[in-house]
């Protein structure tokens, strides 16, 4: 029997088999050991491109862009109703490294929703929040809390415009009591007004004005008093 000489390879044969088995470019449906399901595009054996993931444990679905195994780009995340099993959208918008990042809309239980900027999975940047009680906040956010400049409008149309910190009114701001026809302008600290001026504002159009108008301020320099209070507040923050 003649001797047959096989060509020598520079790598083990199982490396070649593994390389050929890798999912790359085409759409595949794959089931994980825990029952999770993914159908979509792949690159170097990682979810990459357009695809849909279904988590068996919760029934949640993500459909959108992937990058090297993580949600990255534009996509939507939905969960099934515990009774009807109908899918309800929870978030739709932009993702980065598997977290909400960029502009997106979040739908909360009870009808609340947020539309605006995200960073690292948290509301950060400029956004608008619709609360269950009918209040609306629009302004700056930082790590899931109103922080910076923003306006909160209450269901009775009263509103606060000014500075926020860690989800509370903090710094210079104005509170419009539309129902009474009054305006408070001053300095706030952790949701508590510390110093300011209360005047009549739109009293004739107010649905429930106070019995007597607020008398005119007799201070020689009311603006100077308020400016001094602002300076004291700034010093306390430094």
From TrEMBL:
Pfam families the UniProt entry points to: MORN
One Gene Ontology cellular component annotation held by this UniProt entry: acrosomal vesicle
Record's keyword terms, sorted: Cytoplasmic vesicle, Repeat
Principal location listed in the UniProt entry: cytoplasm
The keyword Methyltransferase appears for this protein: no
SMART domains given in the database record: MORN
Keyword flag Transcription: no
Location in the cell: Cytoplasmic vesicle, Secretory vesicle, Acrosome
Gene3D superfamilies: Histone H3 K4-specific methyltransferase SET7/9 N-terminal domain
Function: Assembles a suppression complex (suppresome) by tethering SIRT1 and MDM2 to regulate composite modifications of p53/TP53. Confers both deacetylation-mediated functional inactivation, by SIRT1, and ubiquitination-dependent degradation, by MDM2, of p53/TP53, promoting a proliferative and cell survival behaviors. May play a role in the regulation of spermatogenesis.
Name under which the protein is recorded: MORN repeat-containing protein 3
